[in-house]
Amino acid sequence: MQQKIPEELIDQIMSQNDIVDVIGEHIQLTHKGRNYFGLCPFHGENTPSFSVSPDKQIFHCFGCGKGGNVIKFLMELDSLSFVEAVQALAKRSGETIPDEYVPSSAESSISESEQSAIDAYEWAGRLFHHVLRYTEDGQEAYQYLNDRGFTDDDIEEFQIGYSPLKDQFLTSFLEQKGFDLQSLASIGLLSQRDGNIFNDRFKGRVIFPIRNHQGKIVGFGGRAVEEGVEPKYLNSPDSKLFQKGKLLYNFHAARKVAQKENEIILFEGYADVIKAHQAGVQHGVATLGTSLTESQAHLLKRYVSKVIICYDGDQAGREASKRAADMLQQVGLDVLIANTPYQMDPDDFIQSYGADKFQNQVLGTAETYVTFMLNHLKKDYNLHVQSDQFEYIEKALDLIATVDHAVERDVYLKQLVQDLGVQRDSLDEEIAERRRINERRDEQAKRARTESQRTQTRQQKTEIFPAYQNAERYLIAHMLQNQYVAEQVQERLGSKFNMQEHQVLVTYLYAYYEEGNEPDVSRFMERLPDDDVKQLVASLALLPIHDTIEREELDDYLFAILKEADVDQEIRSLETMLKNAEKENDPKSAARIGMKILELRKKSNKSKL
């Protein structure tokens, strides 16, 4: 039976994993004042409301309210159990957790059937890789990969495999391992016909394992190498574990390099990613046989500021590049589009011309979004016809007017003058007018967003700014960072806070200090059994307070809290008197008492700090 991980070991692992570093591996953070800010990964937003405190080692989103320490962040982000999140942190910092603390599949954050599916994919991946590298069945596929320029290092790095052209090669293997074939058919690892006959789904194909963001195999991409095997390309079908629109091939491995470079290279195919890796591009990812989705675009936005699209050089590739560029531009990324010459795909270009030319002539000459879109726009017009010229110029100016940098606008306008022989002065006037219109529209949108934020803030203030409640919140914020203040409050007030959630919180906090612990918000949160209390701690710990509190300020907080408690007690007493007056059929006394209650409630609710 799994034992509870000792608090000392948890503290040690947390101390080796700075929350800013860990969260910074998943979203872009900007340092402002004492904290770091970024776009919240838990809800969609355009303005950063996600705050990370290096001093307190906690995070809190002021938009959706989620908060916690580094363990809680990983639990929320990757849907991990507590122990799985601790394991992930231990692995990150090179520490080990004894086996008695490691969860069984039944205690995992994912279901037993999901864990079984992952195990089956892992076994299948190992089997396919072994067949490719070390068996006679895999020789033809191995030769095919060698002819395509894939090295042994590539095959090992990406664990490429081969599924023999046999109906039940994998099926028999997994059945012997004790897996339920019906379940494996439901996730698309096997195929099923006539109700109870199971066959290998990917037979006759080179296998590319597809991993989730934790590096676990959750699907396969197959490329036929045998004659008559159709379709040529085959992916695992969508399931709870494998969702083509949310995953990217090689993302788990490319993420760290991409963050370091602050850019990612987006390809269409697995082979492109692998060949680019061979050419020194270690931050390449690919979509999974579908167009780029909004979910994938937002995923990239969390990690980088720039994306270079490197799709096939044919017409279909250019059209796909346009769709992807528009999607990435809309989520706020800086987009460049590489042009693979001779209508080749990146894989074949690298094979034919080598790594240096790919780096310099393809990636190194990537076009800006506007340049690409202008060239893409040209193909729809015959610029020797005057009416087409005018229409093209109008659309080109609309596009150029969106560029904020004057020097960049100047380059595009010079190109228009050169291509079409129009007067530069007239173009400048048109651009100026368009930018004025755009600025008015942007200003209106900005005012609308600001007003929305103000409305939200007013609503929040209405909920949290009665004097006694504000006093309790700021007092607890001081108590979280100062044990002496907590001891003073415990002596003078105990747990007699007016808000029930505050009563619960301070009871835990008193116990934490009585155990001999030093002030440490992150570790205190780890001792809390309830997620709601943890999120409350995260929000209170990030309130703007001074490092110390004056005696007068402490007395003011306590006075406001006790005053509300006295008013509450008086109201409760009057409510009892009101019930008695009503029972005794004394309407005059009941009315007088009722008015007194209303006055006390009104006085309490209007009281502000």
Protein architecture, described:
It is a single chain. This protein is α+β, with helices and mostly antiparallel strands and 609 residues long. The chain is built from 26 helices and 16 strands. Strands 1-2-3-4-5 form a 5-stranded antiparallel sheet, sandwiched between helices. Strand 7 and strand 8 (197-200) form a beta hairpin. Helix 25 (551-583) runs antiparallel to helix 26 (587-606).
Q: What are the salient characteristics of this protein?
A:
609 residues; alpha+beta; five-stranded antiparallel beta sheet; five-stranded mixed beta sheet; 56% helix; primosome
Helix/strand-derived category reads alpha+beta
How many runs of DSSP E, i.e. beta strands? 16
Sequence of strands across the biggest β-sheet: 1-2-3-4-5
How much beta, percentage-wise?
5-15%
Q: Unreliable runs, pLDDT <50, ≥5 residues?
A: 457-462
Question: What characterizes the major β-sheet?
Answer: 5 strands, antiparallel
Shape: globular
Mean pLDDT: 88
Query: How many H/I helical runs?
Result: 26
Q: Kindly state the percentage of residues in helix.
A: 55-70%
Cα distance spanning the termini: 53 Å
Radius of gyration: 32 Å
Summarize the structure.
InterPro entries: DNA_heli_DnaB-like_N_sf, DNA_helicase_N/primase_C, DNA_primase_core_N_sf, DNA_primase_DnaB-bd, DNA_primase_DnaG, DNA_primase_Znf_CHC2, DnaG_bac, DNAG_N. The protein is an alpha+beta fold and 609 residues long. The protein is built from 26 helices and 16 strands.
